[in-house]
Amino acid sequence: MPNAMQAVGNAGRFEEVVLPHLDAAYNLARWLVRNTHDAEDVVQEACLRAFRFFGGFQGGDPRAWLLKIVRNTSYSFLEKNRPVALAEEFNEQVHVRDVPAFDAEAIMVRDVESRMLRESLEELPVNFREVVVLRELEGLSYKEIAEMIGVPIGTVMSSLARGRDRLRESLLRARAREGTRGL
Amino acid sequence: MVCDDNSRLLHGYLDGELDLIRSLEIEEHLKTCPDCAQQLWGQQTLRKAFRSSNLYERAPSGLAVRIRASLSQEVEPEADATSQPKPISILTPRPKVWNWLAVAATILLAALLTWRALPGVGGRGNSDLVAQELVASHIRSLQPGHLFDVQSTDQHTVKPWFNGKLDFSPPVRDLTEEGFPLIGGRLDYIDHRAVAALVYQRRQHLINVFIWPAEKQTDNNLHSESSQGYNMVVWERDGMYLCAVSDLSTGELQQFAQLIEK
């Protein structure tokens, strides 16, 4: 079986080149599907797909390459299992320019807690959540994000602007809520 | 300038993604528009919150095991399997194959993925976050226009450049003869403090050496880690931490570290 040796060699190279990015893969999947168990399944599936396509990997950044596959697999998963999550709409009625009262901002500076940030990010519609995760947690450039999700760079900037504005606004509201509860 | 346009461009500015002219325009605008300045400040606050958060989700250790097992199944299909790839579904977890090869490979992989302790820089000293910041800073430096504040192959130009910009004096050494030419330096900001970054070149690869004062003396063993496909070697010398980050192999990076120490 001439392919067997090749396959074993590929497996070794795959492990060396692609699997070091497992944390990045998991982080993206976890934030897209919003559930640890599903994220593990998605990443496992994505790695299998990546392994099968590995022959076609032309070099370049293996992390971006793997993340693109993880993203596609996550969306397939959502389409199949969580169609509602994909249909979440962005509430355009709230405009952040109306929100930033200086005092509330000052509270934010003192202690924005991870938990609130986590909850606010979870609530963000998936198309905004993904650009924020890719930029703030994965540190990708606009160009890398644009290539990954197949949109112009200007669209990445717009999505980030709206996603982050929404995050700030929901953090401020969370702070206000906790404040009234006397926390 | 219209603020509605700027509210979008502010993000490009915040992310260092605007060209020089646009950046200067935004800076001019910020001087005269408190509203936009306030927006930017809010966004910087949000970014700080991300940086100090624990939102990055690392893969659970068992996941590597499962993936390695399913890959080994791919490589050695069972005797009764057809040559067609098996249809797979996310809904059905694949059976776990615990052969010794998979287990051995997994141990190796776990070793690769394990993070070793990295000294804190200024504030919290969370080593994972610091390592992430160092790698992120390295990646950012590779983007056009972010590599140096001072471009020079002369250590006697680079070292004095840091005077007055840092509260310590970083050791600067050119290693051109050893095959690692110094090409410049810049100020960077890691874990809530300003640090020195020296840029060296090795063939087509760039190495960032981040330097900051050690808070307390420890042994100066070299240790290495890797993240996002980049390798990192950290060591201590004369009360300072040095951390070299590059896409070079760990071996070459350690060789480089030893040359700096000579």
Helix and strand arrangement:
The complex is a heterodimer of chains A (183) and B (262).
Chain A: H1 2-17, H2 22-33, H3 36-53, H4 62-81, H5 83-86, H6 102-111, H7 114-123, H8 126-137, H9 142-149, H10 153-180
Helix pairs in contact in A: 2-3, 2-4, 2-8, 3-4, 6-10, 7-10, 8-10, 9-10
Chain B: H1 3-14, H2 20-32, H3 34-51, H4 61-75, H5 100-113, H6 127-142, E1 150-151, H7 155-161, E2 182-190, E3 193-202, E4 205-213, E5 223-227, E6 230-237, E7 240-246, H8 250-261
Antiparallel strand pairs in B: 1-2, 2-3, 3-4, 4-7, 5-6, 6-7
Describe this structure in words.
The complex is a heterodimer of chains A (183) and B (262). Chain A is mainly α. In chain A, 75% of the residues lie in helices and 0% in strands. Chain A has 2 domains: 2-86, Orthogonal Bundle (Rna Polymerase Sigma Factor, Chain: A); 96-180, Orthogonal Bundle (Arc Repressor Mutant, subunit A), CATH 1.10.10.10. Chain A has helices at 2-17, 22-33, 36-53, 62-81, 83-86, 102-111, 114-123, 126-137, 142-149, 153-180. In chain A, helix 2 (22-33) runs antiparallel to helix 8. Chain A is globular. Residues 78-118 and 120-125 of chain B have low confidence and may be disordered. Chain B has 3 domains: 3-51, no CATH class; 61-113; 127-261, MucB/RseB, C-terminal domain (Phosphorylase Kinase, domain 1), CATH 3.30.200. In chain B, helix 1 (3-14) runs parallel beside helix 3 (34-51), helix 2 packs across helix 3 (34-51) and helix 4 (61-75) crosses helix 5. Chain B has helices at 3-14, 20-32, 34-51, 61-75, 100-113, 127-142, 155-161, 250-261; strands at residues 150-151, 182-190, 193-202, 205-213, 223-227, 230-237, 240-246. The chains are: A mainly alpha (183), B alpha+beta (262). Chains A and B meet through helix 1, helix 2, helix 3, helix 4 and helix 6 of A and helix 1, helix 3, helix 4, helix 5 and helix 6 of B.
